[in-house]
Structure formats: structure tokens, C-alpha cells
Automatic annotation (TrEMBL):
InterPro entries: DUF247_pln. The chain crosses the membrane at residues 544-568. Pfam families: DUF247. Keywords: Membrane, Transmembrane, Transmembrane helix. This is Uncharacterized protein.
């Protein structure tokens, strides 16, 4: 199954929909013979749909990519209620049809004789082609069946959304407004599993119905037609607040809800209230500037980079210069004697070419070298004019426990995902607050699936999920984030929360997101530059993995003894040592 849809097929007019998919839209069941197929084609071509007021619609309801479904099917396939045509015919969900029929009866009672429920279906039949345009998969049902399906499912969904809205209102306002039977039942059943199962089902990508149908149905039901959109916006706002695992800012709510009619379905509405729109051009320019600066820094390092031995000697001199005393002065004279300085001033390449010294070249170089950014080709491989996805290595990031040991502090932010950043001066990683409960995993997974199927720009939410997957390995990581106020865990245990993030490692494709990639890069640079990390990596690489460290120690001991022997051959060590001891005793 294709993971991306060309833009020419993503958007279709009514005529394009007719020419591309109207053959099965009139009769979406297999045709019995060739002659019947010809008749259907002729009808599809001759039928005039130019008068349809819906000029344009976009494909927005996709089948979840198999790469994601195989990881956890129950997170993408409805378990209780089917909304829309994708899962309508599943026998496992037939038992719940009576609840949807009951909701349709109640909606019919609220129409107040303005129009019968059959009239609602007829209005939906007129929107058949626009409805089909929203679905990526071909729908093997005729127009009337599709309209009845949407009317009944829309009635149930509208009642459920109103129930959430009334539940979250103050008691005085609840008593003043008419309430549905479902909202009354939710007072007693909210704590039960069924409520959470419905919430999970209506947030699944494959279980969406077009939002414009919900709006049309609400206008028929709501008594005050002039403020129907405003009231529906309030209902959708409560739904977003109920379902979203993140704290929704007022600005993002106003921005999305004022134009909620532009969004195709509930999951899309939820996505754009959580995920900010990132300017691709700005991120690309910043990336180029950063890389240009990196090139300049690398050139300066090439021009003025001292040898590894000189770096070690400077570091040793700083330490010894702070210590005084007769034995220390003697050690200083020994280290900075002529033989030692001769070795230091010798070209490093010449020394490391010797058999013994070549073995210690790499460990010493890794220990004293500064962490540098990866080559430009690693992060910006756009010379051919086409943006490439990042490498797998770029997603690697130390866990929370490892970062805490390295001195990193975690601070929560109450805003959107763009506030994620790493402050190298204060050694602080800023992450948004996220609530984890029984519904969070399904919501997160379907947001990732929606982004992979629909969004053409940077996959911000997927990259965020990869970041959290990278920093969370064990329940200790979850505990640390919870204690710092970043995770609000309402699940059974921290271990269950860790399993949630570790299970989301599978993504459809890698993507570049400027501010998140910079955060990952900055964290890795700080972490890899720590001496404790360098020593640990060095020990792991040269001690646990091989015996090279023994050779390194033996060579170091040999050099030290050779220096002592050379020094003592020039100076009389015994007499000088006695003089130092006597002078120390006299003082």
C-alpha cells in the first residue's frame, strides 16, 4: 500500500471524483457481467453533476499504513463502535448498532417536525460525491446506503460529543440546557470501560466521518440556527480538551476553532490544535546558517588545532600549577625536562607511526578530542535539490537516566511542541507537559498515522514521538520525568508508561524537523563532550571489548620509565633526591 499520495489524487473536484471513482460509487459491488459494467460506465459519464455546489474536497480519511498496523492492530481498528464505511460491516461490531439506531431516533425527535429523518438522508445523498472524496479507499456501497450510514453514525457521534460537553459544564448550566439520554447515562457510566472505548474508537483514523455532515446535522437539530456554528465550536472545544494528552493553549484553540469548518474530521481538528504549523523555509535557512558556521569552526580547528599530546600537557600543567610543595616541584621539573619536551614537540604523526605508539594513538585522541558536529552531508544532503530524510543515527539520544547523570535538568513547559529546546548554558532540556491515561496510546498512534498519511510538510508529531521514544527506556526514566512535572501518569504504573513509548518506535518514514533536530543534536553534543561519558565510552571500547588498554598502560609505563632513566642519566637523581628530602626536613 502506498504511503504517500500524489497531490493530483489528493484533491478532487466533483467531476474528477465522478471520472475516477464514480463507477463503483453508483454500484460499489462487483458487477455480474461485462454488459452491466458497460451500462454503469455510460451512466457515470453521461450523468451531469456540474450543478453540485461542492466544488472541491480533499482525501482525508485513509487506511492506516500496514507498517503501523502490524505493531498494534487494536490501536487502529475500532473495538466497540464503527463510524463510517471502513469497518461498518464487521460482525464483531453489530451488537452496538442498536445504540446508534436509538441515537438516530432521539435525533429524529429533536428535529421538531422541520424535516423527517428521511429528509436528512436525502440531504446527505446530495453530498454523496463530496463524501466519497474524503475517503481514500473505494467504498463498495451505493449512494443511498452511504447516506443512511452517515446519518445514523453522525447522530450517535453528535450525541456523544454533546454528552462530553454537558458533563464538563457547571451544574447550573447543565440544568438550564436540555440534555440527551446519553449524557444522563454518562454520569453513572463514565468510570466504566465503555466510555474510554468509545473515546478511543472515535479518535481512530479509519473510524472518521466528514465533519461537514456533523455540522449539517447539528444545524437541523439546533433550534437557534444563527449561532449553531458557535455552539458546535464549543462542543468540539470540549472534545479536544477531553481527548488531548497535551495542555491546549487558548491561542491555538481560538485559531483552530474559529475556522473549524476547514477541517475534515475530528482527528484532523485534534491534530492541528496540538501540532503547530512549522515554517519549512525558516527552518531550512537556519539549518544552512548553522552549517555554514560549523564549516567556519571546522576550518579554524584545522588551522589552529594543537596535537593531542600538547593538549594533554596543557591540561596537566593547569592541574600542577595549582599545587605546590617540594615533591610537586620535583615532579614538575621531571615532566617538563628536555627529554619529555622533546617528545611533546615531535610531530605527533611521526611518533604514532612507531609500532608501540600506534596502539595508543586512537584511545588518547578520543579522550582529549572535543565533540564535533557531523559532516554537512550528514544533516543537509540537499545538493541535488531534493530534501533527504535524516539518518537513523541522528535519532539516537541518551536516555533520561543517562542525561541526569551527565547533569542535565528537565523542565516542563505549558505551551506547544515548538517550546522543545535544549539550553546548553543552563544544561536544561525543556519538554511540554503530557498526560498519560488509558486513551493516550490510541490517540498518539492515530495522530502519527494521520500525519504520515496526510501531512506533506515536516512531520513534527512523529519526530516528537521519536524523541520521547529515545529518552524513555525504563520505568526509571518515566519516574524522573514524572517527578519533574513533564509526565502526568494516570496509568497503572511507570513501567506501563515506559512500554507505551517503547512500543511507538515504528514509524513510516524518517523526517526532518528543524527545531527538534537541533535539540537532539545539541543534547548529543553536550552529552558526548562530558569527561565521564568519554571515559565510560573509552573503557567500554578498549577495556571490555578488547585488551588494547593493557597495551596502552604498558606503553605508558615504558615511556615513563624511559623518561626517568634518561633524566637520571643526565642528572644524579640520588643526590638530588637526598637534598630535597633534607631541605624538606629542615623546613
Amino acid at each position: 500500500m502506498a504511503l504517500t499520495i500524489p497531490s493530483i489524487f489528493k484533491s478532487c473536484t466533483a467531476k474528477q471524483n465522478k471520472s475516477l471513482s464514480a463507477i463503483p460509487s453508483i454500484r460499489q459491488t462487483p458487477l455480474s457481467n461485462e454488459q452491466e459494467w458497460v451500462i454503469e460506465v455510460q451512466r457515470a459519464i453521461k450523468e451531469d453533476i456540474a450543478g453540485d455546489e461542492d466544488v472541491r474536497a480533499q482525501v482525508s480519511i485513509f487506511c492506516v499504513p500496514q507498517a503501523l498496523v502490524l505493531c498494534k492492530p487494536e490501536a487502529y481498528v475500532p473495538q466497540l463502535f464503527a463510524l463510517g464505511p471502513y469497518h461498518h460491516w464487521r460482525p464483531q461490531l453489530y451488537d452496538m448498532e442498536r445504540y446508534k439506531i436509538a441515537a438516530a431516533r432521539r435525533i429524529q425527535g429533536r428535529l421538531n417536525g422541520v424535516v423527517e429523518f428521511d429528509g436528512v438522508v436525502k440531504k446527505f445523498v446530495k453530498k454523496e460525491y463530496k463524501i466519497r472524496c474524503h475517503y481514500h479507499k473505494q467504498l463498495h456501497v451505493n449512494g443511498e446506503t452511504l447516506a443512511w450510514m452517515m446519518a445514523i453514525d453522525g447522530s450517535f457521534l453528535l450525541e456523544f460529543l454533546q454528552a462530553i460537553y454537558f458533563k464538563n459544564q457547571p451544574k447550573a448550566q447543565q440544568e438550564a440546557q436540555p440534555r440527551t439520554t446519553l449524557s444522563k447515562r454518562m454520569e453513572h457510566e463514565r468510570a466504566k470501560v465503555s466510555f474510554n472505548m468509545i473515546v478511543r474508537d472515535i479518535t481512530m483514523l479509519e473510524n472518521q466521518i466528514p465533519l461537514f455532515l456533523l455540522r449539517k446535522l447539528f444545524k437541523l437539530v439546533y433550534s437557534q440556527k444563527d449561532i449553531a456554528d458557535e455552539e458546535l465550536s464549543n462542543i468540539l472545544t470540549e472534545f479536544v480538551r477531553e481527548v488531548s494528552p497535551f495542555k491546549i493553549t487558548v491561542d491555538s484553540l481560538i485559531l483552530v476553532m474559529d475556522n473549524f469548518t476547514r477541517h475534515a474530521h475530528l482527528l484532523e481538528l485534534l491534530y492541528w490544535t496540538i501540532v503547530p504549523k512549522v515554517k519549512e523555509n525558516a527552518s531550512e535557512i537556519n539549518g544552512v546558517n548553522e552549517q555554514n558556521g560549523t564549516d567556519v569552526e571546522s576550518k579554524e580547528e584545522i588551522r589552529g588545532d594543537p596535537t593531542v599530546v600538547q593538549k594533554a600537557m596543557k591540561l596537566l600543567w593547569k592541574i600542577l600549577s595549582r599545587i605546590n610543595g617540594a615533591p610537586i616541584r620535583y615532579i614538575k621539573r621531571l615532566i617538563f625536562s628536555r627529554p619529555i619536551m622533546f617528545i611533546v614537540k615531535c610531530p605527533w604523526k611521526m611518533i604514532t607511526a612507531l609500532p608501540v605508539f600506534s596502539l595508543i594513538k586512537l584511545p588518547v585522541k578520543n579522550l582529549f578530542s572535543q565533540p564535533t558536529r557531523k559532516p554537512k552531508s550528514h544533516y543537509d544532503r540537499e545538493s541535488d535539490g531534493e530534501e533527504q530524510p535524516p539518518l537513523v543515527e541522528e535519532i539516537d539520544i541518551p536516555s533520561v537516566t543517562e542525561l541526569v547523570r551527565a547533569g542535565v535538568k528537565f523542565v516542563p513547559t505549558s505551551k506547544d511542541l515548538t517550546t522543545i529546546r535544549f539550553d546548553a548554558k543552563t544544561v536544561t532540556l525543556y519538554l511540554p507537559i503530557i498526560n498519560l491515561d488509558n486513551n493516550t496510546e490510541v490517540v498518539l498512534r492515530n495522530l502519527v498515522a494521520y500525519e504520515a498519511s496526510v501531512v506533506t510538510g515536516p512531520m513534527v508529531f512523529t519526530r516528537y514521538a521519536e524523541l520521547m521514544y529515545g529518552v524513555i527506556d525504563t520505568e526509571e526514566d518515566v519516574k524522573t520525568l514524572r517527578e519533574n512535572g513533564i509526565l502526568v501518569n494516570r496509568m497503572k504504573s511507570d513501567g506501563e508508561a515506559a512500554e507505551l513509548w517503547n512500543g511507538m518506535s515504528k514509524s513510516v518514514r524518517l523526517t526532518k524537523v528543524g527545531f527538534l533536530d537541533k535539540t537532539i543534536r545539541d543534547v548529543n553534543e553536550y552529552y558526548e563532550g562530558r569527561w565521564s561519558v568519554k571515559c565510560r565510552v573509552l573503557m567500554k571500547k578498549y577495556v571490555y571489548a578488547s585488551w588494547s588498554i593493557l597495551t596502552f598502560l604498558a606503553a605508558g609505563l615504558l615511556i615513563f620509565l624511559s623518561c626517568v632513566q634518561a633524566f637520571c642519566s643526565v642528572y644524579s637523581c640520588n643526590s638530588r633526591l637526598k637534598q630535597l628530602i633534607n631541605s624538606a626536613d629542615e623546613s
